[in-house]
Please model this.
Amino acid sequence: MNIADTQREIRYAFLGGFAGQYVSSLIWLIAASLKTWLSTRAGITALFLGSMGIFPFNQMLVRLLGCSGMVSPENKLWGLGPQIAFTVPINFLLVGAATLFRVTWFFPAAKFVVGSHYLPFIILYGMNIFGILASVMVVIGAGLVLYGPQIFTLGVWLTGIQLIVYGFVGGKIVLNEEMGEQ
Model:
């Protein structure tokens, strides 16, 4: 298998990774709701614990949408997926440290970490749109940390909405590509 074939197989098996963005957006929006209407602790807990279910819920959603959620054993690029996924909990140690210093940095720092983890998706899925997603998330996350502590909740709402939009756009790109090949 060449790199283009491995990327195409991963794209089709997981709808370009965009089902995972829908799942993630739901978790971010639940966290935003809990932060806004219940407490900061509830929002932080929801995002942290909810993130642990992204892959299983992603698997369920891609299968409900008719994708396999699996790739062939010959696909050597597949091992990159778990490596990318594990960068988030590792980097959440830094998010936790930042939060101990200033609780208003939790959601922007989490946005920054999650955004940066999308960069290797460019290679995994062969889709440059992930570079745009990563850049926007990192810039907004950093901007909110530096200039927006008074709008603490804005980052979490923006992330939830942004992931829905990118999920729709990216999913549409993959579906159009798949329909064009049939």
About this structure: Residues 34 and 98 are 21 Å apart (CA to CA). The chain has a mean pLDDT of 90. Residues 154-181 form the longest helix (28 residues).
